[in-house]
Hints:
Layout: H1 2-11, H2 24-33, H3 39-50, H4 54-57, H5 62-89, E1 90-101, E2 106-116, E3 122-132, E4 138-146, E5 155-165, H6 171-178, E6 185-195, E7 200-202
Helix pairs in contact: 3-5
Amino acid sequence: MLASVLFASCAKISMNNCYNENTAEKDLASLVKNGLLTDEDATLIKDYATEWNYSILDSISYETLLSDAKAAKEKAERNKKIQKELDESMTVCFVKKYRTSDWQNQYLSFDLKASNNTSKKVNGFKFSANIKDGAGNTLYNTTWNSSRNTVKANSSTVIERFVIEYDNSDDNLAKLGAAELDKLQIEYHVLSIIFDDGTSLEIEE
């Protein structure tokens, strides 16, 4: 009887135990039952774990995982606010799509209209574009830097030649090359802005 009690005591899960994919569900339920985690904390750990390769987490304690998960949530909330401010400060959209080439490669090129909605001159910016076909299937997703182009305060300008190296053996690039620009669905997000006064606004990496 004493041996059984001692075994149960040794086997009791604690926040110092390391995450294990095979026992995580049971471990988290036990931690909640024993008052070491709230239901919200357990869900936070589960959600955080799904974003990572489970095997990477196997050497990390539940205490550390909870701390990391909370930090990641706080960062995501900050970035959500920053993204809202970025989207209000500057907007971008492609206004022309065409083919270009050099002696070695062919390219799909885009001209971009950038609108600065702030009272400060923009000296550079970075944006992402998720380009989809008419059915909503992603054809190309990338991030571009525009570090040499300025946009005056409360004004718009067209910037030429954002390029994608073209490979007609790639089905998605072939579809992108054949599609009219106005038939594409494109999601744009400005990720960082550098102003001429030395300040900047950017998503946390």
